[in-house]
Amino acid sequence: MQFFRLFVLVLAVLAALALLVAGPGTRLELWDFRFGFTLMRWALYGGLAAAGLAVIVLLIPGERRAGVMGPIAAIVIGLVTAAIPYLQVQKARSVPPIHDISTDTVDPPEFVAIAPLRADAPNPPEYAGQETAQQQREAYPDIQTLEVDSWPTLVFEDALETARAQGWEIVEASESEGRIEATATTLWFGFKDDVVIRIRGDNDGSVIDVRSKSRVGRSDVGANAARIQAYLDKLTERLQ
What we know:
Number of helices: 6
Distance between the termini: 67 Å
CATH class of the largest domain: Alpha Beta
Shape: elongated
Order of helices and strands: HHHEHEHEEEEH
Oligomer: single chain
Number of strands: 6
Strand content: 15-25%
């Protein structure tokens, strides 16, 4: 029985390790992102299995006398490990399977300088279309064009500095065209999501549109909408 107790603890640790390396390994290009997701799935199943087996160990008469720290550790490690990918899956199911978000879904800002960088990306630079737009409007009704009472030339520098403050890599900033293009890299998996900001004059002020699109994956798990909203919130604060 001692071997079984050790096996359960080792299984929990291996599941945790699979979770820990899934993202960094993908970011370092040691494997494809699909294998990274597979590791997270293994972590989920392995963590649950370890926790379940550890509970069984504790329920076996006489096994508590052999010590409870090992099984309890397996339960904690297993459940925490399983919880992370499980919550990620639940979040993915709670949002539409789209990856192209724009404040203007009728005339979305276009990628110009970034377009060549997406040449080999599974998701093309062109806008995903009205089906995506409809899903976005239902899921993210707050993603709207920002209107401000300042001229585009005055807004541009604040918009650029706000983009830099987000940690994005600025690819091009054309004040004459009122366009800023940047790439955001996600922390864990290192996914590349591209952003284009468009600033245009409107009567006595400006309208600011932002579009964010993932290079890979069908669903962005809400990342692009959250990125746009966070940017617009920070820009609004800066412009006040």
